[in-house]
Design goal:
Layout: H1 12-29, H2 45-49, E1 56-58, E2 70-72, E3 75-88, E4 91-98, E5 101-108, H3 109-120, E6 128-137, E7 143-154, H4 170-175, H5 177-183, H6 187-207, E8 211-212, E9 218-219, E10 231-234, E11 239-243, H7 248-256, E12 261-269, E13 281-290, H8 294-311, E14 317-320, E15 323-326, E16 332-335, H9 336-344, H10 351-360, H11 370-382, E17 390-396, E18 405-406, E19 409-420, E20 423-430, H12 435-443, H13 460-467, E21 473-479, H14 480-487
Parallel strand pairs: 5-7, 8-12, 16-17
Antiparallel strand pairs: 1-2, 3-4, 3-6, 4-5, 6-7, 9-11, 10-11, 12-13, 13-21, 14-15, 17-19, 18-19, 19-20, 20-21
Helix pairs in contact: 6-8, 9-11, 10-11, 12-13
The chain binds one RNA strand through helix 1, strand 3, strand 4, strand 5 and helix 3.
Length: 507
RNA sequence: GAGGUUGUAGCUCAGUCGGUAGAGCAACGGACUUUUAAUCCGUAGGUCUCGGGUUCGAGCCCCGACAGCCUCACCA
């Protein structure tokens, strides 16, 4: 390539793009639209590969002379992105990839003719092309489409990453997820696995008679969880609104309204930090079943998980890092106190010992309710030990403001959290439907929590709904992103969220 | 928000003691009709993240900013 005179020599990146633009120009001169158009009748590459058995080998000639036998294969049409290119004189070997697989294309000058050969001279790595040809094997046995006609479908003007190492920089992988999906081993599969999991969850719930609804994402009162909300503003009404932090309170209104099995699977927003397990927007499932309780939701949880794993085509024993997790139901069921005793090294009923543990761990314990201290200790000492899957059952009532108390023991709430690999992936209650107790719990400031962080925002309409009578019910929440992490062996939430929050790119 | 760590060609990465900026892939030119990360010959490509400072001299040392990652905090 020569630079026009009187112009600055191009830098590396600009030079790479210029060479591609030159080929784009050449395509136009050949009368080819570099941006292609509708391309009918092509088969997914995975399906094309499955037709390998249709290749017929006729041993013509003499085997003794080493003459290669004649092959006849099916005529196929494929479309995909060029991911590798090997030019060898008047031959080109292309590897093209679509979302079902990858296959080699043989382009010979005499086989595709001068027009086809000229077209192939305009190919760059990353271009999208189509091909008609015969499916056969090469001398070395590689399944190959022997091109008879080439089609240009779209030009790629940016150079792709290093052809085998791909994108390594996690920042680039997240900012340019499109490149990550193309070039990172397993990235596309993981994205599609997430879709399969979500589809499976919807199918399981539908099979159990649940209906899906869409609650509001803009809330006047952000309730249903203890989290700081994002604030936004409605201009016409001139009011501040909050992005929802949970689905709970509106779904329960629908329970009052007679939608007896109801769920929502959608995005919630929490104005908090980012970590390998947290993204400010994440996907939550909440499901409510009238006349059930938290045990009903345990069975449902097991079914949702087992179905989802089967939907991804995996066995119920899944790899997780260096270890494995067995998701075969039923999952272990242990009480909170039992696990506390086992892993924290103190009796949960021995208040001085629990407080001492809290002090030891560096928590502020003074003036805090014993259950808050106990839960701090639990989170620090017990949760990480729960490789699970294990249902942690029967939480201290005072840290569960939306949960029904156990009959005969007002200090214990009918709640479970499902832990796997030290992560909470599900949280379920026997839902509190006593409006007076609910109001009292909203009113009671939880010890040690600032008002803006607590559940203590009063949603009066929700209480009014409860006063109209909510059926006793079981409710379940599942963090979909974390579930997908576990089911796809992904160490960070950023691997399973296509576009995680990043600071804006500097200009 | 705090601490640690990383930032060098389009991508992946080297860069010694502070002394003229390196490789592989990709690109460009050439050879090659069954390659497999093709090979071989040649060419070009740099605001060393940004801004200060120390120094005769900074990719390297110091200060600050920006961004990613890790740990912690908030939280699920």
């Amino acid at each position: 390539m020569t630079n026009p005179p009187n112009e600055e020599p191009l830098g590396g990146g600009a030079m790479l793009e210029a060479s591609r633009r030159e080929k784009l120009q050449r395509l136009i001169e050949l009368g080819v639209d570099p941006w292609g158009g509708r391309f009918d009748g092509h088969a997914p590459i995975g399906q094309i590969r499955a037709r390998e058995g249709k290749i017929v080998v006729e041993p013509v000639g003499d085997c003794a002379t080493g003459q290669s036998p004649e092959q006849h294969g099916p005529t196929v049409r494929a479309a995909g992105r060029i991911v590798l290119q090997r030019r060898k004189g008047k031959l080109i070997f292309l590897d093209i990839r679509d979302w079902t697989g990858q296959i080699q294309i043989f382009v010979g000058k005499s086989q595709v003719g001068n027009d086809g050969w000229e077209l192939a001279q305009c190919f760059d790595l990353g271009d999208l092309v189509g091909v008609d040809g015969e499916l056969k094997r090469t001398k070395t046995g590689e399944l190959t489409v022997f091109a008879e006609k080439l089609h240009f479908l779209a030009k790629s003007l940016e150079p792709p990453p290093a052809k085998h190492k791909g994108l390594r920089d996690p920042e680039l992988r997240q900012r340019m997820r499109y490149l990550d999906l193309i070039h990172t081993e397993g990235a596309l599969e993981r994205a599609l696995a997430r879709t399969k999991i979500v589809q499976s969850i919807r199918a399981t719930l539908a099979g159990q008679g649940f209906v899906e609804v869409e609650g509001p994402t803009l809330h006047a009162i952000a309730g249903g969880a203890a989290a700081r909300p994002f604030v936004t503003h409605h201009n016409a009404l001139d009011i501040d609104l909050y992005l929802r932090i949970a689905l709970e309170l509106h779904l329960k209104r629908l329970l009052v309204g007679g939608i007896e099995r109801v769920y929502e699977l959608g995005r919630v927003y929490r104005n908090e930090g980012i970590s390998p397990r947290h993204n400010p927007e994440f996907t939550m499932l909440e499901a409510y079943q009238a006349y059930g309780d938290y045990r009903t939701m345990m069975d449902l949880t097991e079914k949702i998980l087992a179905d989802a794993i089967r939907a991804t085509g995996e066995s119920l024993v899944l790899p997780w890092g260096e270890t494995q997790i067995d998701f075969t139901p039923p999952f272990e069921r242990k009480t909170y106190n039992e696990l506390f005793e086992q892993h924290a090294g103190a009796s949960p009923d021995d208040e001085p010992a629990v407080r001492a543990l809290g002090d030891e761990l560096g928590f502020v314990t003074r003036g805090k309710h014993i259950d808050v201290v106990k839960n701090d200790v639990f989170e620090a000492k017990v949760e990480s030990a729960l490789t699970g899957p294990v249902f942690v059952c029967d939480y201290p009532a005072s840290i569960c403001p939306l949960t029904k108390r156990k009959a005969g023991d007002p200090n214990v709430a009918e709640r479970f959290e499902l832990f796997v690999a030290g992560m909470e992936v599900a949280n379920a209650y026997t839902e509190l439907n006593d409006p007076d107790l609910q109001e009292a719990l909203f009113n009671r400031q939880l010890d040690g929590l600032a008002a803006e962080d607590s559940m203590a925002r009063m949603d009066r309409d929700f209480l009014r709904a409860l006063r109209h009578g909510m059926p006793p019910a079981g409710g379940l929440g599942v963090g979909i992103d974390r579930l997908v992490m576990l089911l796809t062996n992904s160490p960070t939430i950023r691997e399973v969220i296509l576009f995680p929050l990043l600071r804006p790119e500097a200009e």
